[in-house]
Amino acid sequence: MNHIKQFFLAIYISLALTCQDHVLADRATTKDIIVPKISEWQVTVVNGLTTNETLFIHCKSKEDDLGEISLIRFRDRFSWNFGENVLHSTLFWCYMSKDDGHMNVNVFWDDVILFHRCGWKNCVWTAKTDGLYLWNYASGEDVLSEKWEDGW
What we know:
- It is a single chain.
- A hairpin with a 3-residue loop joins strand 2 (55-61) and strand 3.
- By secondary structure, the protein is an alpha+beta fold.
- Helix content is 18%, strand content 43%.
- It has three helices and ten strands.
- The chain has helices at 2-18, 30-34, 112-117, and strands at residues 40-47, 55-61, 65-71, 77-83, 92-98, 101-108, 122-128, 131-136, 141-147, 149-150.
- Pfam families: Self-incomp_S1.
């Protein structure tokens, strides 16, 4: 009986790795059916620096490097969408810097408290003069999550 389970597991894995991503009805793809995403998410980083500073960000995950971005004006934003993986191990982090400070910070990870604060779909991080804030959909306010480290 173990050989049958291993056989079907091998077929499932080969289909997941080799299927072409054909679009089906209502934005679903063949890959979504074979390797379903747990949930769709959006992460947004906003320049909330009221001192007219440029916010530099470089965000990435283990699989994706989103590049270096300059958010020049107050309220400029950078967003990306992704599906959380089946293993619940999706992690995105960013290096951020401004004129007199910098930080390395996780902006998405598998955590039910984070999910609740993000309204189960959209994490909005705002860089302000004193640190990085996460918009808490549950309480309707920005919550300070990380303070700037001095220097670059």
